[in-house]
Amino acid sequence: MSDAPQQDLHDPYPTRLDHAIAPIERLEPAVWGDAGSGPLPAQDLEAFAAQGYLIRPDTVGEDARPPLGHELERLAAELGDDDPRVIREPGGSIRSIFQPHLLSELVADVVRSDTVLPVARQLLGSDVYIHQARINLMPAFTGTGFYWHSDFETWHAEDGMPQMRAVSCSIALTRNYPYNGSLMVIPGSHRTFYPCVGATPDNHHRSSLVAQQFGVPDENTLTKAVDGDGIDQFTGAAGSALWFDCNLLHGSGSNITPLPRSNVFLVFNSVDNTLTAPYAADGIRPEYLAARQTRSLGLPAPSS
């Protein structure tokens, strides 16, 4: 018997289908707040609405970076192989650690910092909570990439996220070069939802966190998207943050260089966009992947 509640609502973003259908125009705005509701000026909000992403330098200060790096090492050493929050590469090295904000006060401080939380609240126009958080490690020589995908497609299909009212913040803890597996995005792709073909397998998260095969656009769709909008890449100094819309198509190549890469990855969801039943999966994913408890982030909400 399925452990997911029944989903009776009309689905504006159908996906994981048995046949291809046309792309769907986005219904929601990409920016819900305004220049008076947070630290981002009007030009940054306009750029985010148009491109679907924004790079913010010095999100984590120079003094805080070494302690965070040590914290990553501590978590990697202390969490056992049987902890489901630890995802490993096929060769055995750690790929991701989920829920670091609940395991480390240093990471929790980053979430609540004045360079992070107010930006999330401004972009989403409401109070927010952590839908998902993880540390991503791209080891030297052996780090494998992430195939092109929209996070919202997964969160909608497998977690029951109803609206495109979530935003991701990827904070670089090491320098991102064009050649060490840094994130690539298709600017403007957040304006379109691309339905995917193929039913969600049972317990899909056990394989998709290493290599995603379901819920990814086909090559023809990706070619058309890139032909129209091109590809941008997140490069730059440690401490920089890439903010990107939940529906932006993104991915990364493998890292065959001697230069490892790591980042803290935070997903903020609006408290007005809480999860329902999955739209295209039989069971709900674990809490560490899709929070159904809207935990307070410990700071007063913005005034409306």
Automatic annotation (TrEMBL):
A GO molecular function held by the record: 2-oxoglutarate-dependent dioxygenase activity
Keyword terms of this UniProt record: Dioxygenase, Iron, Metal-binding, Oxidoreductase
SUPFAM superfamilies to which the protein is assigned, alphabetical: Clavaminate synthase-like
Cofactor section: Fe(2+)
Entry-linked InterPro entries: EctD, Phytyl_CoA_dOase-like
Record keyword Iron present: yes
Listed EC numbers: 1.14.11.55
Catalyses which reaction(s): L-ectoine + 2-oxoglutarate + O2 = 5-hydroxyectoine + succinate + CO2
NCBIfam families found in the cross-reference section: ectoine_ThpD
Family named by the database record: Belongs to the PhyH family. EctD subfamily.
Function summary: Involved in the biosynthesis of 5-hydroxyectoine, called compatible solute, which helps organisms to survive extreme osmotic stress by acting as a highly soluble organic osmolyte. Catalyzes the 2-oxoglutarate-dependent selective hydroxylation of L-ectoine to yield (4S,5S)-5-hydroxyectoine.
Subunit text: Homodimer.
Protein name stated in the entry: Ectoine hydroxylase
Species lineage: Bacteria, Bacillati, Actinomycetota, Actinomycetes, Mycobacteriales
Gene that encodes the chain: thpD
